[in-house]
Design goal:
By secondary structure, this protein is an all-alpha fold. It is about 90% helix and about 0% strand. The longest helix is centred in the middle third of the chain and has 38 residues, at about 35-70.
Length: about 100
């Protein structure tokens, strides 16, 4: 019984990844539109990436400050490292989601 509870998040994650992959290929198979739409899309993508870079610069200062505060707290440097890893993985998810 316990093994089923332990495996259910892994199975749900796998199903979610397969579903995301199916949706990715369905979207990529669609036509991109006419020239004007593609030009506007490029402008939107460039603006979104500029925003993301600016946002990450501001958030990096906050993340470093929180990581140092966690490291100096009773939670210790392990909690600080876990926070830093989570912040970095969140950054990657946002970056790849924007691409």
């Amino acid at each position: 019984m316990t093994a089923g509870f332990l495996l259910s998040p892994v199975i749900a994650g796998g199903v979610g990844l397969v579903f995301a992959l199916v949706l990715y290929f369905r979207v990529k198979a669609q036509e991109t539109g006419n020239e004007a739409m593609n030009r506007i899309s490029k402008y939107v993508q460039e603006g979104a990436m500029a925003f993301l870079v600016r946002e990450y610069k501001v958030l990096a200062i906050y993340a470093v400050a929180v990581a140092i505060a966690l490291g100096l707290s009773p939670l210790g440097w392990l909690a600080s490292g876990c926070f830093g890893l989570g912040a970095f993985l969140s950054l990657l998810a946002g970056f790849f989601g924007m691409k």
